[in-house]
Amino acid sequence: MHKPARYILLLLTVLLAACQAQVKEEDIFNVPFSIVASGDDSQLSLAKELVIRDKTEWKYLWLAHTGDPRKRPPAIDFRSEMVIAIYLDQRATSGYAIEVQRIRVINNQLLVELVVKHPDPRMQQSMAMTQAHTIIKLPRYDLPVKFLYRQQK
Question: Which of 61, 74, 92, 134 is 20 to 30 A from 35 (CA-CA)?
């Protein structure tokens, strides 16, 4: 094989490998967020993952969450912010929680990484119906949202 042909073949191999490469580090970045509400008392008792990008949806969620039309939802500027709400299903004891570990933009989607915490079997838990939830606000992204759950170790 001639030298120019070898160089072209080598160049094509390198380019093909680059095209098949996974996500580059600069394509991944963390998204800041803050907790709006978190706990184990909610009027919503089914497991849900909700992405809220407008004021009307936010009002409906807050009403369903609190069950009290007199309680106003916290202020969110939906021009620049959005809300993500995560609910576990109803449980018969306390000690359950859901925690957002981090949020990243990867491959043109938001990846919300969560940890589900279970009661410590060595500790006594109250026997009460609980609805673990976490509601966060973050900068607005018009990207699909994916949830990645991990169990507490």
Answer: 92
Token representation of residue 144? 């699909």
Measured in whole angstroms, the distance separating CA 12 from the mean position of its chain's CA atoms is 39
Eight-class DSSP state of 69: T
Q: What is the Cβ-side half-sphere exposure of residue 109, based on CA atoms within 13 angstroms?
A: 10
pLDDT digits (tens, 9 = 90+) for 108-147: 999 999 998 877 677 666 666 668 889 999 999 999 999 9
Q: Which residue has the tokens 């407008």?
A: 54
Contacts with 55 (C-beta within 8 Å, 6 or more apart), sequence order: 76, 78
The residues, ordered by sequence, that sit 6+ positions from 128 with a Cβ below 8 Å of its Cβ are 92, 93, 94
40, 53, 141 from 91: Cα distances, Å: 9, 29, 32
Average pLDDT over residues 25-34: 79
On the question of pLDDT at 65 being above 80, the answer is: yes
User: What six digits make up the tokens of 16?
Assistant: 């093909």
Total Cβ atoms within 10 A of residue 125: 15
Q: Is 63 helix (H, G, I), strand (E, B) or coil?
A: helix
